[in-house]
Amino acid sequence: MGLSFGTKAPPTALSGEVVVSGLGKSYGTSRVLSDVDLVMNEGEVVSVIGPSGAGKSTFLRCLNYLETPTEGTIAIGGARVVAGGKRPDKSSIDHLRRVTGMVFQSFNLFPHLTVMENITLPQRNVLGASKEQAQEVAERLLKRVGLPDKAKAYPARLSGGQQQRIAIARALALSPKVMLFDEPTSALDPEIGLEVLAVMRDLADEGMTMLVVTHEMHFARDVSDRIMVMGNGGVLEIGPSQQVMSEPQNERTRQFLKAVLDR
Amino acid sequence: MITQLLPAIAQGVGLTLYVTGASLLFGGVIGLVLVGATRSPIGIVRGIATLYINVVRVIPPITWLFLIYFGLPQYALRLSTIQAAIIGFSIIASAFMAEIYRSGLLSIPEGQREAAHALGLSTLTTVRHIITPQAFRVALPAIATYGIGLLKDSALASTIGVREITYYAQQSAEQTHEGLLSFIVAGALYIVISLVIAVVSRRVDLTLRKKIGVA
Question: What is the dihedral sign for C-alpha B120, B121, B122, B127?
Fold first, then answer.
């Protein structure tokens, strides 16, 4: 019996800031995500696009275990979780959440806390930062997202775009290795969305590793290094942004891009 | 006449407030435990808590008081009238408060928990700093309404001899034969206390609402 060398390297052999392999999720018999692979280098920005119901958000939310994947492995910035079988231990999930920061479509700021408290509470609880340290970080980040004068405001007093920028600052305050964005501008007016996109663009320029589920095609094309197109719970194609936008390989991708770009 | 009746009946205000306040406090704390139990991953714990909440609420308050004050001594548990009243009303309040908390918890958008998870906040911090303050804000008007209800129910404590407002009103009525006036005075005292509770809770509610907006 001769040794056969596999055509596919085992997942552990891959290196990168993000290594996702064979990720899948089923509810009973219905499969919402199947066999998603993704390797990202440090500083890389990948946009995830595709029609609704394609599994984009589910994929993203599996990466920090807001959804529990049923198969595959996730390795991000030193944290590693193998899905399926027994529920993975809480400490690896905590680790995964520690190295990722997430920005939601609906911002999800804590409405009963001021902007400052929104940004300092997680630092104090998760990092054990002192009040002074946490405030210093918060002030620096508020400047960075262009809202240095809003520290004392409550979220209800802010516009959607401002709330989302605060949410980005809140996530950044924990120094994540990878930022996950789940349709960060979908709940915003197109004009207001621009201020959020500008912050994300700066973040990308500064070398943050980012995975962005989005319907903003300009952002996907101009800011991200690669575009991953999803459909029907799987990856349709993935490649350099310009290439996917101008010469999509997959028929379903062509259809989708035509629908989005022709409108 | 009223100058004699008012001070006589107002002697009961202290115990009315004491029984109502203590029961609301104990009931509020036990209610927290109960609502936690109804969300327990362990089925039997959930079942017992749900059963407790539903059974307690359908038994009339006066039945609870008689059961505790007249029933328990049969098993050598003799309580003072005030103890019996507070225990009875605390049991009842705990079931109602659990229901009020539950509606408060349900009003919190799922995104709040998700954000807490994504940030990696501990369960304790999430419950203490994220969930509870928001649930409390939503539940506050219902808690105030229930507090006023409990204040009125506390009159039942007079039936086992707690010297609260209604007890003294009854006593005055018998001694002075001014039945109508005695109970009007008692009613007026309940109105005043209720108004204070309502106004204070409304104030707090408006302040919170102005500050953080409607959740």
Answer: negative
pTM above 0.80, yes or no: yes
Average pLDDT over residues A230-256: 93
What value of ipTM does the predicted structure carry? 0.89
Q: Which CATH architecture has domain A18-56+64-108+179-261?
A: 3-Layer(aba) Sandwich (3.40)
A171 interface with B at CB cutoff 8 Å: yes
Span A239-250, pLDDT tens digits: 999 999 999 999
Tell me the pLDDT tens digit for each residue of B20-35. 999 999 999 999 999 9
Q: How many CA atoms lie within 13 A of B136 on its CB side?
A: 14
Confidence band for A87, pLDDT divided at 50, 70 and 90: low
Fold of the CATH domain B2-211: MetI-like fold (1.10.3720)
Tokens linked to A82: 């193998």
Tell me how many degrees the CA angle A153-A157-A159 measures, rounded to the nearest 5.
Answer: 115
Residues of B in contact with A171 (CB under 8 A): 118-119
Q: Which of A60, A108, A118 to substitute to test the interface with B, most B CBs within 10 Å? A: A108
